[in-house]
């Protein structure tokens, strides 16, 4: 019981501190400190509840056990990370996003195709991955290629749709200006429409980061070599090594957040001019 | 009536015919039991369910049950309706595999999720590394079906005599084109589909009494199923809520399952247990269990149930 | 002024919209000679912008004929004859002021060195010399408007189309830019089409003032200005000036519903 | 209506591609079988065989269509629409979890957004974790959620709905934060000059101006809910629902069944998203925001 | 005019921005009596808007003191003393014109019946009687601007703050609205603070004209107008009028860098 009360007490204290911090001026350190404090609170509450309520370790291990496991299993975690994230997710992400942007540019020239492809595309994007993943594993084999294929299938349409929306973001006056210069299609594309589309494209790219990692992991549930984050998670659940499962989940969350953060940083660099990046 | 929840290891199919028969034919009612059968599936670890209090009794393979016990989950085998193992490795003849000596360099499909232990023990027996090193085999995590063999992504895959093997046959490959290695024949068979409960249950006489009645009724169901395979298969089909099973496949499965349950009256044969534990302990550098298990099985329930 | 640069004959333009059609221009005929400065004035919605857009081939008349330099507006545009200043500044937010002004030069393929020189020159012309490296949103509205004027002046367009370029500026800046524009026009002999809501501005700048009236957009009056080419700011207090301003105001008032 | 012809064209193109791919992918099996039987096949025979295999690598469109019809329309005509073998029954099971999860997720997302917009501490500390939460592979923790909830006696619809809520709250929260912040400084200043209270600013300004964002994110959330419900069905013993159908099909290598369940799910998603779109059009029209 | 409604003493305002601080107002002192009409004129960026925002408690001075009706601007706002017309119309697109005008009345809790009557009255005042059920985007820019003026007039604010309300309108409409505003002001005795770029407009409307100069924003001149309260449009041709206009222009010119 004291564990539970201690955890709740910590929560209250941390929240009060955060409320106080929020009143301070916005600085970089604060921007990191506050979520860190919040995350620490989550971990403390978790630890306290698991210990206080005597939750069996085969159901939910406490963060301390997970931390210990991470420390002792770094080589395995690293190998899994390379297999799933670097080989599967990243390559699929690059291919899928690239194909999405290029297809959008191609489709953009034909309103006919746009009207036809978008609804059909939305329909195809609605096919749940749990269904498509086994099929793609069957088609592309067990190694990372099939994981990349799943990622491509997942990220392609969000990027396509966002890019298309972005390509129509340049307003009529800006386009008319290009017309008065008698600019060629390529000039208008590179000097006006792509820059104007960037905020939208990045929207798609950011959504795609979380999809990519999830896609690569989920695909491993349906067949894989004997390494990879998804493989490890599903195998270790069966072995009741829940600390290892959560260690992998922690790596996934960390990698996913870092990936998201990296893309968001690129976004800030490229679309510094957009009101949403200037504000606050 | 007393309530009992049974967690299966896999989806509803003739592999668990005895329990469905007992339910359907009223054997549980006769024992004043109200039994709920929870189907399993690829994502369900029965030992996790039982640890979370989601079931009273579970069906599991002994290797993973013992591994879980070593992890600190105190589960105990109370009955063993399956006498023999149905596991085997099935290869396409055209790949040229003729005996275990041919394995090195090959790609083998293996079930994980706690089902990899028998395979790993076998390979350890043979001295074949599975970690991708020189002179070893390439291991694939096999999905839920036999596609890797049909698509020739693996030279051999894991199959059960009563299920996946027949899926390969149904896919149009003739038995002559296949070569199979039964774990029983290789001397590395481990016990499958035993009934397990948490240790604490055995300290409570009322609970033990409930389990005794449960095992008695279940074994009655099994014997009925062995005697009436076709009807048993139809009972299983009636309980399949996915609507995905076919009559032909279930009847055939029942026939094969009957061969595996045939030698058991429900009580665990200590010799089978000994062989299983020895196999698991002898796992080379990375054995499935590291210590001789203590108190991992009991005859308390079966003794009361069968006499 | 022998061959007109712009020749509009009975130009009609009807917009098809969701609920019915809108007649934006009706029977507009107008000749503009080389080197003329023509102002368009008229109530909101009378079709001033629409007419300029027709000249720049951004809209296409649904009736009548319109030629620029003896060819169709579309072809004239391909010759890069136009410098267009829109009602709003329309700078690209991802380019600095200098790179915004350089944009048309890049598109038209001016040599690199010349691009820089020209950008520098027009920045000075509109009093933005120190601001080349700022982004548009770092400037006040008036400065943005001046940058967009600079952008249209940076390259050698025959015809300058300006749609209320000075709307957002205060009187003093406006007077200053009016003088600058007049000087530039006198020096280069460009043909200018200029939309404004200010009567004094129209009279001060133009050789010809076109007064338009709404519903449907038509020309109510065309006034040729007798003012000399050389125009100090205080010409605005001369009787000739006031006389023309009065005529314009009368023409305008006729298009409104008040009194 | 202008879209009918383009959509039809695209669908036809996809069908053509699909048939082509089916022939290409399934041919190897046909040839292998023929080789085993020692037969020689003509091209016509190969093509016709690839389009009617029992366990094709890629089923042909007409096979999927026939299976869909067999398990929905045909069964409905026989009055067995809700039999366990009917996709309508499984679709209904998934639909109910989807809708419940969607309601919970959308509600939670909106509340979170309101909190984030009105409370700086929440804005700064919660958002990064909301993002991190979405990088956790749901398929991995779904079984654990189910087991934990089961052990405290919650079974049936609710655990699935919670998983689908977990997936759907995020797009709603992100979209609504954007939407509730979309009024510009001038709109807010205007409210200030009138001395409006926080509640009035919310209901009369922030809420209405967030509507376009709300509906866009609701569409995404609806699709996510469906995926969540399907994922949640896998570890429940895969008994009922489209997820169970997918899995059972996958387990027995019944590709035709997988594809028909897949399309069943996509059709369901399209219908649900279409419904949100309809609500969007009606609302925005009533608000005068649709032009 | 015994107790001033607005009393500013040595008001300073410094904005902290990413790259350094901007002094927007410096040492501004000004008294405005009840029922006065004060115009602010000055080059772009000189702090006109900022001063109005300070009065409405939308910004807070970093130095000096400012009181409204003898209390702090914040408290005055809670009393709902202000009607503010922003530079842009700022109508809410999801409300019809009538419901936009009704919005402040809802917020201030006027009874339902009175709301409708007031909306009707101000719609007529700005010549939009038939347009109550239209949405903002169905109106031209000028009409939107008039609707936003109507919105500020619908409730009984003591003090009317107007930031270039007529900037987007053509001369004729502008004249018309100037007349209307003057009549309203004479009838109701409200205190008005009015920002404009047009010298004639400032002189025509005001009892007091404040000329501001930029960098840092300070008051360059305060001119009390000797014109009578009754002002027909053609008062603009009288010598008194031109005299004041001249003084304003001189004050303005001093703030610019030209000549
Ligand atoms: N794309 C369009 N579709 C339909 N109607 C249009 C379109 N563009 C302009 N109009 C209509 O054509 C008429 C003329 O518009 P135009 O923009 O030329 O007016 P304007 O004289 O420039 O007015 P302002 O002084 O307000 O700029 C208006 O009634 C307008 O509503
Ligand atoms: N929020 C702000 N942050 C930083 N600087 C600001 C801010 N608001 C205004 N300024 C600066 O304060 C000065 C005064 O601005 P203000 O808007 O009051 O000018 P103004 O007289 O209203 O000009 P205009 O005629 O263009 O409307 C300008 O230099 C401006 O850049
Ligand atoms: C993911 C996964 N793959 C394979 C098995 C192994 N398995 C245990 S019982 C059984 C039924 C045989 O027909 C099978 C295949 C599993 N449990 N989970
Ligand atoms: Mg216009
Ligand atoms: Mg201002």
Automatic annotation (TrEMBL), chain A:
According to the record, the segments passing through the membrane are: 32-50, 90-108, 120-142, 148-170, 200-224, 244-266
Q: Tell me, which GO biological process terms does this entry list?
A: transmembrane transport
Coiled coil spans:
none
Give its localization: Cell membrane
* Entry keyword set: Cell membrane, Membrane, Transmembrane, Transmembrane helix, Transport
A GO CC annotation recorded here is: plasma membrane
What protein am I looking at? NitT/TauT family transport system permease protein
Q: Which organism is it from?
A: Rhodovulum kholense
From TrEMBL, chains C, E:
Annotated ABC transporter domain ranges read 6-235
Protein name per its UniProtKB record: NitT/TauT family transport system ATP-binding protein
Q: What is the lineage of its organism?
A: Bacteria, Pseudomonadati, Pseudomonadota, Alphaproteobacteria, Rhodobacterales
Pfam families the record matches: ABC_tran
- Family according to the record: Belongs to the ABC transporter superfamily.
**Keywords in alphabetical order:** ATP-binding, Nucleotide-binding, Transport
- Keyword ATP-binding among UniProt keywords: yes
Which GO terms of the molecular function aspect are on file?
Answer: ATP binding; ATP hydrolysis activity
From TrEMBL, chain D:
- Gene Ontology annotations of biological process type: transmembrane transport
Please list every transmembrane segment annotated in the UniProt record, as residue ranges.
Answer: 92-117, 129-149, 161-180, 213-238, 258-279
Main localization (coarse): membrane
**Highest rank taxon of the organism:** Bacteria
InterPro entries in the cross-refs: MetI-like (IPR000515), MetI-like_sf (IPR035906)
Q: Does the keyword Lyase apply?
A: no
Membrane topology qualifier: Multi-pass membrane protein
Q: Which family does the record claim for this protein?
A: Belongs to the binding-protein-dependent transport system permease family.
What protein am I looking at? NitT/TauT family transport system permease protein
* GO cellular component: a single term: plasma membrane
Q: Where in the cell is it found?
A: Cell membrane
Q: Which PROSITE patterns match?
A: ABC_TM1 (PS50928)
Keywords from the UniProt entry: Cell membrane, Membrane, Transmembrane, Transmembrane helix, Transport
Organism of provenance: Rhodovulum kholense
Domain annotation ABC transmembrane type-1: ranges: 87-280
């Amino acid at each position: 019981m004291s564990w539970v009360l201690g955890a709740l007490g910590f929560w209250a204290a941390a929240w009060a501190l955060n409320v106080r911090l929020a009143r301070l001026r916005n600085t970089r350190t604060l921007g990191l400190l506050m979520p860190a404090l919040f995350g620490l609170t989550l971990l403390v509450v978790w630890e306290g509840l698991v210990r206080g309520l005597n939750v069996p370790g085969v159901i939910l291990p406490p963060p301390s056990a997970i931390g210990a496991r991470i420390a002792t299993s770094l080589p395995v975690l690293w190998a899994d990370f390379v297999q799933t994230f670097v080989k599967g997710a990243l390559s699929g992400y690059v291919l899928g996003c690239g194909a999405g942007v290029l297809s959008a540019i191609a489709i953009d020239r034909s309103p006919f195709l746009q009207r036809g492809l978008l609804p059909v595309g939305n329909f195809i994007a609605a096919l749940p991955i749990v269904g498509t993943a086994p099929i793609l594993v069957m088609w592309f084999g067990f190694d990372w290629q099939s994981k990349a294929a799943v990622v491509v299938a997942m990220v392609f349409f969000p990027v396509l749709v966002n890019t298309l929306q972005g390509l129509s973001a340049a307003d009529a006056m800006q386009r008319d200006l290009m017309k008065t210069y008698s600019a060629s299609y390529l000039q208008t594309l590179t000097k006006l429409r792509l820059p104007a589309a960037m905020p939208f494209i990045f929207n798609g790219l950011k959504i795609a980061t979380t999809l990519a990692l999830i896609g690569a992991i989920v695909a491993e549930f349906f067949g894989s070599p004997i390494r990879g984050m998804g493989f490890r998670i599903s195998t270790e659940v069966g072995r009741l090594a829940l600390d290892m499962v959560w260690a992998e989940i922690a790596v996934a969350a960390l990698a996913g957040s870092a990936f998201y953060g990296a893309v968001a940083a690129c976004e800030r660099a490229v679309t510094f001019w957009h009101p949403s990046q200037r504000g606050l | 009536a007393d309530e009992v929840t049974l967690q299966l290891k896999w989806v509803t199919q003739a592999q668990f015919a005895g329990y469905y028969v007992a339910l359907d034919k009223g054997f549980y009612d006769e024992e004043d039991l109200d039994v709920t059968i929870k189907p399993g599936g690829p994502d369900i670890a029965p030992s996790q369910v039982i640890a979370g209090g989601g079931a009273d009794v579970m069906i599991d393979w002994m290797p993973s049950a013992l591994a879980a016990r070593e992890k600190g989950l105190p589960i105990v085998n109370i009955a063993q309706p399956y006498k023999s193992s149905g596991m085997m490795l099935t290869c396409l003849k055209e790949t040229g595999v003729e005996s275990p000596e041919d394995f090195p360099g090959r790609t083998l499909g293996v079930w994980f999720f706690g089902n990899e232990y028998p395979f790993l023990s076998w390979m350890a027996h043979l001295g074949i590394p599975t970690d991708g090193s020189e002179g070893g085999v390439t291991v694939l995590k096999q999905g839920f079906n036999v596609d890797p063999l049909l698509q020739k992504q693996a030279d051999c895959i894991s199959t059960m005599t009563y299920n996946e093997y027949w899926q390969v046959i149904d896919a149009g490959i003739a038995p002559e084109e296949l070569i199979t290695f039964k774990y029983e024949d290789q001397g590395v068979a481990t016990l499958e589909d035993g009934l397990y409960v948490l240790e604490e249950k055995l300290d409570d006489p009322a609970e033990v009494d409930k389990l005794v009645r449960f095992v008695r009724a279940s074994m009655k169901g099994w014997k009925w199923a062995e005697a009436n395979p076709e009807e048993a298969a139809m009972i299983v089909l009636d309980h399949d809520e996915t609507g995905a099973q076919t009559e032909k496949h279930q009847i055939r499965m029942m026939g094969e399952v009957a061969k595996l349950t045939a030698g058991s009256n429900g009580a665990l044969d200590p010799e089978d247990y000994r062989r299983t534990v020895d196999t698991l302990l002898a796992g080379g550098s990375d054995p499935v269990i590291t210590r001789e298990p203590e108190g991992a099985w009991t005859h308390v329930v079966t003794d009361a149930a069968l006499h | 002024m022998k061959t007109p640069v712009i020749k509009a004959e009975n130009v009609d333009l009807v917009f098809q919209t969701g609920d019915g059609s809108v007649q934006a221009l009706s029977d507009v005929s107008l000749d503009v000679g080389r080197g003329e400065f023509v102002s368009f004035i008229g109530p909101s919605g009378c079709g001033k912008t629409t007419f300029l857009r027709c000249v720049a081939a951004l809209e296409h008349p649904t009736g009548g004929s319109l030629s620029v330099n003896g060819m169709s507006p579309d072809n004239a545009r391909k010759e890069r004859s136009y410098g267009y200043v829109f009602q709003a500044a329309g700078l690209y937010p991802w380019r600095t002021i200098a790179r915004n002004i350089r944009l048309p030069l890049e598109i038209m393929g001016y040599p690199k060195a010349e691009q820089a020189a020209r950008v520098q020159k027009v920045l000075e012309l509109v009093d933005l010399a120190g601001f080349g490296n700022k982004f548009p949103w770092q400037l006040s509205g008036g400065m943005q408007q001046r940058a967009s004027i600079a952008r249209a002046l940076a390259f050698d367009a025959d015809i300058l189309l300006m749609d209320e370029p000075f709307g957002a500026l205060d009187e003093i800046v406006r007077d200053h830019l009016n003088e600058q524009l007049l000087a530039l026009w006198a020096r280069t002999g460009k043909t200018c089409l200029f939309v404004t809501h200010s009567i004094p501005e129209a009279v001060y700048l133009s050789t010809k003032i076109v007064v338009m009236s709404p519903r449907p957009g038509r020309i109510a009056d065309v006034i040729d200005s007798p003012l000399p080419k050389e125009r100090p700011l205080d010409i605005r207090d001369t009787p000739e000036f006031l006389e023309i301003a009065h005529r314009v105001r009368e023409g305008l008032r006729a298009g409104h519903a008040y009194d | 209506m202008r879209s009918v012809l383009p959509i039809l064209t695209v669908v036809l193109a996809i069908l053509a591609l699909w048939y082509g791919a089916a022939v290409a992918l399934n041919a190897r099996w046909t040839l292998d079988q023929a080789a085993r039987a020692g037969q020689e096949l003509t091209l016509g025979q190969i093509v016709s065989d690839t389009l009617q295999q029992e366990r094709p690598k890629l089923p042909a469109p007409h096979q999927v269509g026939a299976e869909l019809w067999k398990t929905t329309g045909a069964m409905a005509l026989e009055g067995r629409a809700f039999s366990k073998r009917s996709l309508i029954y499984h679709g209904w099971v998934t639909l109910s979890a989807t809708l419940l999860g969607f309601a919970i997720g959308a509600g939670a997302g909106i509340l979170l957004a309101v909190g984030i917009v009105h409370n700086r501490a929440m804005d700064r500390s919660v958002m990064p974790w909301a993002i991190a939460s979405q990088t956790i592979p749901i398929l991995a923790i779904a079984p654990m959620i189910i087991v934990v909830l089961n052990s405290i006696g919650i079974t049936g619809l609710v655990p699935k709905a919670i998983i689908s809520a977990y997936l759907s709250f995020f797009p709603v929260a992100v979209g609504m934060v954007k939407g509730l912040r979309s009024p510009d400084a001038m709109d807010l200043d205007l409210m200030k000059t009138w001395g409006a209270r926080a509640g009035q600013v919310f209901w009369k300004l922030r809420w209405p101006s967030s509507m376009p964002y709300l509906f866009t994110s609701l569409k995404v959330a609806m699709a996510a809910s469906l995926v969540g419900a399907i994922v949640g069905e896998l570890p429940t013993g895969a008994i009922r629902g489209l997820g169970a159908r997918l899995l059972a099909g996958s387990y027995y290598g019944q590709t035709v069944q997988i594809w028909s369940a897949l399309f069943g799910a996509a059709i369901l998603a399209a219908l649900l998203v279409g419904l949100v779109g309809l609500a969007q059009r009606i609302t925005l029209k009533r608000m005068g925001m649709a032009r």
